Amino acid sequence: xxxxxxxxxxxxxxxSEENIFVMESNRAVNQDIRPLQVGILNLMPNKIxxxxxxxxxxxxxxxQISVDLIRIDTEAPKNTPKAHMDAFxxxxxxxxxxxxxxxIVTGAPLAMLDYEQVKYWDKMQVVMDWARRHVQSTLxxxxxxxAAVYHYFGLNRFLRESKLSGVYAHQVKQEHDELxxxxxxxxxxxxxxxxxxALDDYDSQPELDIxxxxxQAGAYIVASKDKxxxxxxxxxxxDSDTLAQEYYRDLKAGIKPxxxxxxxxxxxxxxxxxxxxxxxxxxxxxxxxNYYVYQITPYNLSDIA
Length: 305
What we know:
By secondary structure, the chain is α/β, with parallel strands linked by helices. Helices cover 30% and strands 26% of the residues. It contains ten helices and twelve strands.
């Protein structure tokens, strides 16, 4: 089944070229189907690239999904045209009374700031409290995952001496959890972050389960026992060249980044990146939509509490 997005959203052309079934909102409203309502709070600077990445992963399911793009700031990011934001994004205040089957909160390039220094931290706290009452299951990615466990459980991150950048092997810790159904015991996933929350800190919270982790990258997938919160500390949505773009961006800025681990063929940046996480990234989103959202969410969204 398709994902339902605005007809002029740039992601539609990209996804159509990849033979992914997308449906314009006007056509979707004429079908006698109750689509899943999914919100995406996109905090990444390059909104359009992130939209394509997330919509691609949401599309690999038999469920019909209607997507709202949400923003909590009033200024257009430098890497996204203001016209795009005005045309396709809802201000949070415009959807505050709506309920969603699922919500995705992306990462953000805010690694070196304390949470209280983030200009929209107050609004983030409002959104996270709102999600507990208005969303069946929320998926937090990278920076948002750490921000959420800090807000909900008081678990603060520490900053690594060097940026964790690359593709790392992870081990399944809870093989019978539905979120990991179909996963290989060891699988790859990309990370790009400075922050980390210690495994012992997650273990100290009886409401949380560590579902997958890595010797090099620490906790990767953590979920609440009620399935209403999922914290993913990496970037399963990344394209094959996203880490390369970040690496060359930092080189150009004079930051002297380390080469991403286990990423370029033969660890040679002149060679192409090796894509080794797409299947598990897709499966993670499909399992989340099926087992953490669709199988649990009430038919009448007003019943979410």
